[in-house]
Design brief:
alpha+beta, seven-stranded mixed beta sheet, globular, binds D-MYO-inositol-1-phosphate, binds calcium ion, Inositol_monophosphatase-like, Suppressor protein SuhB homologue
Length: about 260
Amino acid sequence: MVSEDLRKLDQLICNWLNIVDDILPQLIEEMHTDTKKDRFDLVTNVDKQIQDHFQAFLKTELPTHQLLAEEKNNDDIQPYEGHLWIMDPIDGTANLVKQQEDYCIILGYFVDGAPQLSYIYDYPHGKLYKAIAGEGAYVNQSPLLPPPTLSIADAILSFNPHVLNDETIKDLFQSSFSYRIIGSCGLDSIRVIKGQFGAHINTNPKPWDIAAQFLFAKELGLKMTGLDGGEVDFGQGGPFIISNPGCHKEVLEIMNKGRGYQK
Ligand code: IPD
Ligand code: CA
Ligand code: CA
């Protein structure tokens, strides 16, 4: 049974996402890019301003809620206590900069460590994916159903070949139907959620890359685990897979075969 409070909160967030629709075109038009760790690690004014806007919104509307987000310092955050939002203001920043497509906003809401609301907003395609604890998942207003079971032989797998050793890549290619990567952890995960991909693997995601996926996986009967098969800590991040239940075991067996997936 979903509480009235959770419904009101969902409505509040949907209203905020409507405001995003109004401000994003201008932000994108004025886009300028900076680098962080290296020339491939990009951040733009769009990332920063969307996050700042949400932070200001929380301060006004929900002042007791904490925000753990990519483009801010999170040293004072207690992720496992009280009301927590985890945000990736733009997931797939390289896609935004290079292609102006295939990026999203990720939001996950946790209460005392339990996921309650999740959003993956695919702005360029006008699709809001959301999950509500105890109720299910939606794309825009339409319910999402658990995807049909996919065996590894029939599945498209999504992973970053740059971070896996040759043996693991070869095994994944040979065992699966095919391989694709979008380059946004949120949108690669959505393909699994919709049954288009069998699994998406990220060997080093941060909390904001995977914040929303916990609840989608729970509501739709998908597997979301560490690459060792154990639990993923939403406050820390770490190696993860989101998978159709029909191929999770087989993909993990390949990842952990021999000396493992690392280079
Ligand atoms: C990145 C994307 C990418 C994934 C990286 C993330 P960002 O997020 O999700 O697909 O492979 O691990 O850091 O930097 O675009 O928010
Ligand atoms: Ca990200
Ligand atoms: Ca980001």
